[in-house]
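FIELD: query
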Amino acid sequence: MTQRTRIKICGITSYDDAMVAVDAGADAIGFVFVEDTPRWINPDRAVLIMEKLPPFVSAVAVLRDPTLQWFMDVIDACPTKAVQVHGEALTPELAQAMSPGLVRAVRFDSGTIGDDLEQWSNTDGVEMVLVDGSAGGEGTSFDWDALAAVKDRCSVPMILAGGLDPDTVGGAVRTVRPFAVDVSSGVEASPGKKDCDAVRRFCDVVRAADLA
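FIELD: result
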């Protein structure tokens, strides 16, 4: 029996968009705490949204190259269930200090992705690995067949991101069979603002792909 693919709607900047994701069937929403992006949200505002989520919908903090102090400050202000870290500054020691609930985001490279999956999924503190086509939030797709060929080298749940939208996510799920999919720009009306219909269609397509 094929497992149900979890769905994360990332780049949430308002309560209304959070509820659209919840109503569509998302398992998690993501708050981007990276100030030079159009999807940035203040942690003090994000926590007000998080507190109104249903019990079985998780919130995820998204950071880029955080110091341990920045990580601690963000989690103190908005204690999400998981933290997704992009960038090159994360070390195994820092990952362990940030656990539990750490999601390590890696950029897909056909020459290194197998080693990246193996390295980070065997790093203490890393509970999931997210594979993206860019540094994050750019909607860049990549070779899903190449990822599927090495996915078994990942010993923790794997999240698929990058270039996903209602038209592409079905094929991505059927090819890779990831633990979860993560979408941001692919369901937006404009940067930082979700398209209600796109969010609903995205979730519906994932559910249909699970049955294929």
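FIELD: remark
The mean pLDDT is 94.
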